Amino acid sequence: MKVKVAVIGDIHGTTKFLECYKNIQENDSDVDKIIVLGDWFDPYDDIDLDTMIERYNEFVKIWKSDNRIISILGNHDIAGYIIINDFTNRTIRFGKSSQKISDVIEPNLSESYLTYKVGDYMFSHAGVSQEWLNDISGFSKCNYANDIINCKKGWTIDELSDICMFYPFDWSGCGEHARQSCVWIRPHTLINNAIEGYHQVVAHTRLEKISKVSLKNGKDLWIVDDGQKPNYLILNIEENVQI
After folding, report:
1. What is the dihedral of CA 57, 63, 64, 65, to 10 degrees?
2. pLDDT of res. 95
3. Strand order in the sheet with 115-118
4. Helix (DSSP H) and strand (DSSP E) numbers for the chain
């Protein structure tokens, strides 16, 4: 059976989700899933904090009323607002006001994902690398890799702190190490280190347009962060695929 999926990239405080959702309702109302790949906060444009929170709350109302919507956490939702440490605060742009953002994100963690699957397509904010999965499969964290592959919904703050911090030995400072998590890794690193068996659909790295490249494992990588343009990707996915 085919599943029609709409995928929306980074929001960063803009009206992108609201515009995309309106367009989906008008032009692609038959979609089965609407997957939003995170980064609601830390705008690149001049958007004040209250406006940004208001737009996020508008999304939450729609999300709770439309069961097609899947909300995935991005690094700009987690870093500095949910995880507080020296290696994740690098993205934060609201200083002492960050608690106001934490207050609107935390109540929705129980319904949020880091990864989501449809057939042999894996959706996440930045991508799932095999080296990162191996790293979080250590003795004390043996369930985390299974949780990622099985697309657990509802992550605690402690769990996010365990597995989503910025890998501290990435001297590039840009997420270019294969041990970076599914909210930090960059496409040119993921290409050679992606998990086997899945096409991947990510945002996180801004391109001029929504693009597709080939992974070393023979699958495709879609990158849907084209800035804050009101664009989205439509995929028709065969659901019953053997992985």
Report:
1. 120
2. 59
3. 115-118, 121-124, 199-202, 220-223, 211-214
4. 8, 9
